[in-house]
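Subject: for your reference before the review

Hello V.,

The reviewers asked for a structural picture of the protein, and I figured it would be easier to keep everything in one thread rather than splitting it across files. Below is the amino acid sequence we used in the manuscript, unchanged from the supplementary table.
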Amino acid sequence: RGNSTKPDAWPNSSASGISSSAPMYLYDAVGILTERRYPDREEVDTGQLAASAAIRETGDSGVLRCILRCPLIHGDDPMATVLTSPATETAPQRLVLDDVTWDQYVTISDALTPQRGLRLTFDGTRLEFKTLSYRHENLKTVLGYLIATLAFLDIDLQSGGSMTFRREDALRGFEPDQCYWFQHAREMVGVAQWDPAVHPPPDLAVETDVASSSLNRREIYAGLSIPELWRCDGKTLQASELSDAGQYKLINHSLAFPFLQVAELQRFLHADSPEAETQTIRRFRDWMREQGFRP
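And here is what came back from the structure prediction:
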């Protein structure tokens, strides 16, 4: 990021559904990209200051929309950007940069790794930034509780959460909402850093699809050879198995939990549920006992 200048204060963006620290993440990412594309530091600083001024000027009207006003990534610049409408409770903000190289993706991903509330997806040429809504995170967390509760049925489990997966040979990188190893759980015990050349992919990945990605994340999951994918949008929960042809096909029973019809979990995953998470888990445990699921 060189000698880029950041504003001394960032606006409160809570009205648009974004944490007040989110602008700095995106601002840093733009700084990385512009500095790589424009080695003249004075020009870079001019562009970044313009983005900074735009953010201060527009306040809570949309962080990503402000970033677009940076002249170095706006207009006819070949690194085009696409933006959806401002964030709401169910529709987070999204920014897509085109013509991004693998090295640029890795640099940005490394710079943003310590941060939270922002998800990156790279498909080989395009890089998507997406903020995460409360509804998205709540559904993801509740579904994670259900999976962990099922694993207490004497099933080995090793979780990876929303860790970053990268495969340079496939030019793919992303963070799942949740991921787990079951059949290969013991191979991941004690692992500090996942290495695609050494370690197996997760046995199950979970996608909380409250607001769809601009990129084909299913194709990215397939590119990492993840055998099972669950997708939940707050209304339906579907499980898919990766076929030999490299495409996901719907299945009724989970590969990780062969006794389970995945759709049965949907009753515990209503996006507008009036009950607290702990009540949902208690109700789920009662349902498991009714079904005869016991360790």
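For the response letter, the relevant points are probably these. Residues 1-25, 36-90 have pLDDT under 50 and may be disordered. DSSP finds eight helices and twelve strands in the chain.

Happy to draft the paragraph if you're swamped.

O.
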